[in-house]
Amino acid sequence: MGGEKNKARDMVEEEEEPLSPCSRLFNSPDFNCAIIVTMGCKVKGNPPAIIDGLKHTLANHPRFSSILDMKNGKKGKPRWVRTKVRVEDHVIVPDIEPNTENPDQYLEDYISKLTTVPLDLSKPLWEIHVLCLKTSNAESIGILKIHHSLGDGMSLMSLFLACTRKTSDPEALPTVAVQKKQFGPSCYTGFFNKIWWLFVGLWFILRLVFNTFIDVLMFALTICFLGDTETPLLAKPGSELKPKKFVYRIISFDDVKLVKNAVNMTVNDVLLGVTQAGLSRYLSRRYDQAATPKSKDLMRRIRLRSAIMINLRPNTGIEALADMMAKKSKCRWGNLFGYILLPFSLGLETDPLEYLRRAKVTVDRKKHSLEAVFSMAFFKLILKVLGLKASVVLVRKVIHSTTLSFSNVVGPKEEITFHGHPLSYIAPSVFGHPHALTLHFQSYENKVIISVTADPTVIPDPHKMCDDLVESLKLIKSSVLERGLYEMEV
């Protein structure tokens, strides 16, 4: 009898799971964030096929088959409670007139309206909208809306990819590039060689400690009083509650890699450099400035930073996630992240490659810092000692003191299919946080999709910002080709 009671208790505990500190943060009324993934499909939308596919994938994931109970957990704490998922309730197919006059604008308006409608707490916090709408880049559209409390951006993107298959091989999972990290030489033989690398290791540690100290100090000053310069990009109070505009552009990944190889940098360096150039062009137009020494000096005085969320949990591979959904096995999941403050160097440079050089210095320095780890530990300490409200106040203070959200995610190398729908592009973004501007770069096949999410009361012309980013890459690529750097690299 006692054994049956223990078994029943264990089953209940398996069906319930407390919210992590980060999930509790994302569920607070002042920080209610959700992720939007726009999928351009190459074929007409087939909702029954998507419903059938989701029954064998997302509906089997613990988070996507749990409802949020904010009061009835242990000691009154919020918890996830497993429930039976009716997938049909999560797939929404709106009625759209066949001859819509401007389908691209219709799509923008539709997504904008989604940002004002909260997810239904009586069922798992996700839904997918299937739009039988032909746009300039797709035959139909899928829009996946997921509450951020279900997981961090990297985990959710990996889960999405685990639901897809290669178009060329319907049984195979997508191939995603993995960055190889290596410190030091492959061979340490020789006494002097070992001594040399001992000094290199000591220098690395000293640099790590120094950079971390400076970054933690800047983080503390930001919490206390240090805010960004007031520019036309800075959010107004209540910006997180305003409808957002989602726009995107598609650029060539080959162009990005051409520049990367020519100047011996990483893709992250190039994309940050392109962003700095694009924001400089956009702000100069908003300020109505020409490229003069005085305007260049004025732009460089601008303090403009991004509060970037860094995933600190080892990323679960898409193979493990696919197995979890297919076989209902277990793997790592949840929100575990810290913040870093990434400064953007602005200015109307006569040499487009200067944006890349400045970006590389910034990225290299941030790679040698434990800022994200310290920020995560600090917020967890505040949550434990002072409670959720104090943590929310601190996170909002950091975000309010910065200008934008910025991210870059590596995607599949080849074309993928989402439950019978080959995809022409993938455009993820996020809303619900107190920034007026979010920039996201997503690689997919031979493309990079630039997603701009903007508060139109602050940034009324997000399409022009997209154009500035695209034009900046063109200028940087032209500069590389004119100097013969690419041919030299080859």
TrEMBL record:
Molecular function via GO: diacylglycerol O-acyltransferase activity; long-chain-alcohol O-fatty-acyltransferase activity
Alphabetical keyword list: Acyltransferase, Cell membrane, Endoplasmic reticulum, Membrane, Transferase, Transmembrane, Transmembrane helix
Any single GO CC term annotated in Swiss-Prot or TrEMBL for this entry: plasma membrane
Catalytic activity: an acyl-CoA + a 1,2-diacyl-sn-glycerol = a triacyl-sn-glycerol + CoA; a long chain fatty alcohol + a fatty acyl-CoA = a long-chain alcohol wax ester + CoA
O-acyltransferase WSD1 C-terminal domain segment(s): 333-477
Lipid bilayer topology: Single-pass membrane protein
Any one biological process term the GO annotation gives: triglyceride biosynthetic process
Annotated metabolic or biological route of this protein: Lipid metabolism; Glycerolipid metabolism; triacylglycerol biosynthesis
Cell compartment(s), UniProt: Cell membrane; Endoplasmic reticulum membrane
InterPro entries recorded: CAT-like_dom_sf, O-acyltransferase_WSD1-like, O-acyltransferase_WSD1_C, O-acyltransferase_WSD1_N
Transmembrane segments: 195-226
Ranges for domain O-acyltransferase WSD1-like N-terminal: 50-270
Family from the record: In the N-terminal section; belongs to the long-chain O-acyltransferase family.
Official protein name in the record: Diacylglycerol O-acyltransferase
Organism of derivation: Brassica carinata (Ethiopian mustard)
Phylogenetic classification of the source organism: Eukaryota, Viridiplantae, Streptophyta, Embryophyta, Tracheophyta
